[in-house]
Structures are given as structure tokens and as C-alpha cells.
Amino acid sequence: IRLKGDVRFHNVTFGYEENKTVLNDVSLYAKPGQKIAFVGSTGAGKTTITNLINRFYDVPDGKITYDGININKIKKADLRRSLAFVLQDTHLFTGTVKENIRYGNLYASDEDVVNAAKLANAHSFIMHLPKGYDTHLSSDGANLSQGQRQLLSIARAAVANPPVLVLDEATSSIDTRTESLIEKGMDSLMHGRTVFVIAHRLSTVRNSDAIMVLENGSVIERGNHEELIAQKGKYYSLYTG
Ligand code: DCP
Ligand code: MG
């Protein structure tokens, strides 16, 4: 099956250990193509929500659905095909650039790989590597900059072409030029997909359809940027100006 990217949480309460609640009665509703941003201080539960979207853990209380289907009833392979992650720490393996972009997508042609890299804004730096797409990478990606690793991670997600994307934005400082390449690549990647983003950049947050402000595992505010600014609550104090 090909999921459309309608993702909902219905009153999800979750903890990693018994008697220790990490998410408390979280509900959310993302229509296909919508972008939802999670903000909140460290330990608030942002990564935990993305862990549940990916079904790294089962939900004992409440439920999560994709296109109305309970996540527990979706085959792992179908779920995997429906999701891509772009994380702060991109896992690269020993192999060529091409292999690293293709990753699990064994049927992707060389042309698909190049098109994904172009969409991700990674093509031009790749062409400057000694052997282009056939350049060998070390497993820790030590021969690439952090920004370049992120561009590869975007290309990898683009090859997968999933309806749902989960992004964990980097907080680290990347030079402005690479940063703007990453932003443009991300924008192209996000187009037409349901996106959950753990947002650190104000520009990302502003452009989201809905922002969820988390505190100690609870959603304390939700709305778009203008609505939350008007509320003059936690969000307002985080993002005034
Ligand atoms: N937690 C846990 N066991 C884990 C992961 C997290 O007990 N394997 C706890 C630590 C926090 C709470 O769950 O008290 C929420 O953790 P998150 O990683 O979801 O928090 P954030 O992603 O919001 O924090 P950060 O901004 O630091 O990434
Ligand atoms: Mg986190």
C-alpha cells in the first residue's frame, strides 16, 4: 500500500518506563501535505513524538493512525516506505556517495540518485569531489563537512520519495552559504509531503501550518505563528521579534 500521509495522534500517553509519563494526552492531526512544527525546551518530548511516528515504540494508551489505519496494523515495510528521516546526525556508511544516497532504495537508478541530489542542492558539491558520485566515504563521514553530510541526508530522503518526512533541524553552526543550500534543498524536499519538524529556526516555524508547543510532555499551545504570537504565552516569549 501507498499511504497518503494523513497522520493523527489520538490522546497518546506514553512513557519509556512504567510510571514515568513522557507524553501526556497528546493529540494531533496532520493532513497530507501539511507541515507541523514541534517546539519546546529540552526534555519536553519532541524526539519522543517522532519516535512514535516511526513506531520505534508501541503506544499503550491512545492511538496513532496513518490514513485512518491504526499504526499497529500497518506492515513495517509499508511504514518504512512511507517515512523518511532527516536528522542532525546523518548516518553514513562506508561506500560511495551514490550508495549512500541510494541507501535502502535498491531500485533507484543512477539517474534517480542524481535527480535527488539536484533537488537536495547536493549535486554541485558532489561533482567537486575527487570521483563525483563514485567517491568513497568513510563510515563516520569524516571526509565531508557537517553541512555536506546534511545535504546527502536530504538527497537520501528525496530518493526515498515518501509521503511523510520527519526532520530534526540542526542547531549547530554551519556556514551561511551551506546553510542556504540546505534550506533550499529542504524546501524542495518538503513540497507536497506531510512534514513533522523539530524546529530550531524561526523561519521554519513561521512557515508551518501548525506549531505545537510542548512542555513536560503536554501540548501547552497550538496554532500558527500569528495565532500563537497573539496569545502572548510561551511561544510569544520564545519568538518575539
Ligand atoms: N527519555 C527517557 N528515555 C529515553 C528517551 C527520553 O526516559 N530513551 C526521557 C527524557 C525526557 C523525556 O523522555 O525527560 C523527553 O525526551 P525527548 O528526547 O523526547 O525530549 P526532547 O526531544 O524534547 O528534548 P531535546 O530538545 O533535548 O532533544
Ligand atoms: Mg530531541
From TrEMBL:
Keywords linked to the UniProt accession: ATP-binding, Cell membrane, Membrane, Nucleotide-binding, Transmembrane, Transmembrane helix, Transport
Gene Ontology annotations for the cellular component aspect, listed alphabetically: plasma membrane
All copies of domain ABC transporter, residue ranges: 7-241
MF terms (GO), sorted A to Z: ABC-type transporter activity; ATP binding; ATP hydrolysis activity
Cellular compartments annotated: Cell membrane
Designated name of the protein: ABC transporter ATP-binding protein
Section covered of the full-length record: 377 to 617 of 622
